[in-house]
Amino acid sequence: MYECGDCGKAFPAGWKARDQHCNMTGHDLPEFECDTCDAYFGSEKARRQHMSAKGHFSNQYDSSSNGGSSNYGYYDDDQDWECALCDFCFGTEDGCNQHMVEDHLYCNDCDRSFMNYNNIKQHLNSKVHRGSTIKCPFCAATYATATGMVHHLERGCCPRAPELDRHEIYRLVHSRDPNATISKHSLQLDTTTYSATERAWNGRYYECYLCHRQFNQLSGLNQHLSSPIHQEALYHCPNFRCRVEFKTLAAIINHLESETCGAMRFEAVQQQIGNIVSGNRLLRF
């Protein structure tokens, strides 16, 4: 049961579902989580003791296994910065840290290693390293990622802008995106809302009449119906080589922050997010 480090929600389907939840909400992973299983601990020392006892170490300390280290440095006593995990040395601290992240999947500041590059990128972009610097343009709430802030607005959770939801956010983005850079202009916005009553009970479960998914409680079914799951995709990636479609602004912002297709750097998304959800300037990417 992989759990969210902030809200404690458990994901029996695995770490990918948990990581997707964290990306969408701006929540963080458990701070001291085993690199191999779903166990997490109160300290780095306890985490390492567990991994040692269970044999849950990977080969991520072996820089020769992925061949990346030769791109950044070499063994030379004249170099000022030596990798803590291998014999390579570097002329700058940034170069050494980049090597440790990309070749060893290792965060030197936290003395922690990760299972894959996506996990360490998410860690480095979390509030542990960046803090909660993304401010809601309407209230005092702050978030570690632009995704978390946009999700806050699209859910209608901002006390200073209660009229905003994912439909109003789309109208706002659409009006300032005449070239359809991220918003789709070829569809009519469908604002239809769905709800279920006790008549949705099929004898064992509450059943969605659109996709036939079943729920134990009526509240769970109505939460499903109020989500964008049955909504058309309103956005697309601005990268013409990607063009993946998304149903919410938070989803496309998460895609851009992940740097999956290289459309934008994480830092650029952070800088642009204010122009996307507030103000009256046209969108530029």
TrEMBL record:
SMART domains: ZnF_C2H2 (SM00355). InterPro entries: Znf_C2H2_sf, Znf_C2H2_type. Residues 105-134, 206-230 form the C2H2-type domain. It comes from the Eukaryota. SUPFAM superfamilies: beta-beta-alpha zinc fingers (SSF57667). It comes from Chaetomidium leptoderma. This is C2H2-type domain-containing protein. Keywords: Metal-binding, Repeat, Zinc, Zinc-finger. PROSITE patterns: ZINC_FINGER_C2H2_1, ZINC_FINGER_C2H2_2. Signal peptide: none annotated. GO terms for cellular component: nucleus. PANTHER family: AZ2-RELATED, ZINC FINGER PROTEIN 142. GO terms for molecular function: DNA-binding transcription factor activity, RNA polymerase II-specific; RNA polymerase II transcription regulatory region sequence-specific DNA binding; zinc ion binding.
